[in-house]
Amino acid sequence: MKKKIAIARGDGIGPEVVVEGIKILKILEKFSDYQFDFVETPLGGQVLKDTGTNLPQKSFDQMKECDAILFGAIGLPDLPLGAAESAISKIRHGLDLYVNLRPIKLFESLRDKCPLKEEYIQDGIDMTIIRENTEGLYAKKGAEVSDNTVINKMIYTRKSVERIIKFGFEYAKNKGHSEIISVDKANLLECSQFWREIYLEIGKDYQDIAQKNFYIDSFCQWLIRKPYSVQTVVTENMFGDIISDEAAYLIGSLGMVASGNINPGKVSMYEPIHGSAPDIADKGIANPIGMILSIKLMLEESFGEKTYGDLIEKAVELSLEEGRTIDILPHPKSDLRKGKLKTLNTNGMGDLISQRFQTLLRK
Ligand code: NAI
Ligand code: MG
User: Fold this and answer.
1) How far is the CA of 358 from the centre of ligand 2 (A)?
2) Model's pTM, two decimal places?
3) Beta-sheet strands, E only, within the chain
4) How far is the CA of 273 from the centre of ligand 2 (A)?
5) Which CATH number fits domain 115-250: 3.40.718.10, 1.10.10.60, 3.40.309.10, 2.60.40.10?
6) Closest-approaching ligand to the CA atom of 48
7) Which pLDDT tens digit goes with each residue over 192-225?
């Protein structure tokens, strides 16, 4: 099977982690029928400085011709706010990537990195946040800026709300989840009331799945109070952005979380949820696991390939017992630190996972 993958490395730690993602794909190529054709599609802050645009037309045209896009991260601290980052919205809107899928799973070996006490972790954390990716405040439609007043408009359309909520229910059904949570602010915002009406309406077709609603503020505390109980969450763009960073820290680091920007059946984009992390860029210490798990998501969501995705996750799990990047190292006083656990740089972590993946593929 030939697959064309657009490679959008970006800025800061983006290119550092993309390399580790490509390593995994190259190993998969060796042990399976997959053949990957990597197409470089430069974008981001440095590209803006060099060419005057953060997303050259050629890059975007090539992305449209690919089977999937692998994206690092973009943003440079010496550019005006959002100057580089708007390239992400251009891709999300340009390809109508309306689903932002963010699985948040605490690996058993990282329990020590979860900031919560055992009673709040119980049998583990394994949830998926499904965020609407094209509308809400972030669509930036109809903004009004004057000297003394600035207005951003929060826009929801029936078409977009319906399709993301349906995706959420279908996802919960396919994963065998017994419960779905919708997050809104329906006690205050008309947009949220509209969302909730549609959620309740669509929910009638999924009577086997228990249906809950939370206000965004209340859900933020629920996430740290009973994270072990949360399964599928469906919410709008900004709320999803915020709660997924909160949830990411429950599993040890922002560097652990993968995401898919998906238009089901069409070209979709996979990326770790973190940004370009200028504070650690060029040091070779970034955690590549969010990127590597983004490959798993790509295989599952774009290529319908579950087996290899599961093996990638297994390879990550095995590797975490042997070595870790510094963001997920145990506390210096922890016994785990005294054991065999190695401190690894980005490249070393990527190599270790690749080796374990290779061993699993050989079996
Ligand atoms: P960030 O995610 O880049 O970093 C937040 C914190 O997490 C930093 O302390 C960083 O060192 C740490 N961190 C992030 N990824 C890590 C990894 N893989 N391993 C270890 N530690 C990691 O968010 P921040 O600082 O708010 O934004 C930096 C830049 O990235 C900004 O320009 C922002 O706009 C941009 N950004 C880009 C995104 C994208 O390309 N999709 C998403 C989020 C932010
Ligand atoms: Mg974010």
Assistant:
1) 32
2) 0.96
3) 2-10, 35-40, 68-73, 99-105, 126-132, 144-145, 150-151, 179-184, 210-215, 232-235, 258-262, 268-272, 323-324, 342-343
4) 6
5) 3.40.718.10
6) 1
7) 999 999 999 999 999 999 999 999 999 999 999 9
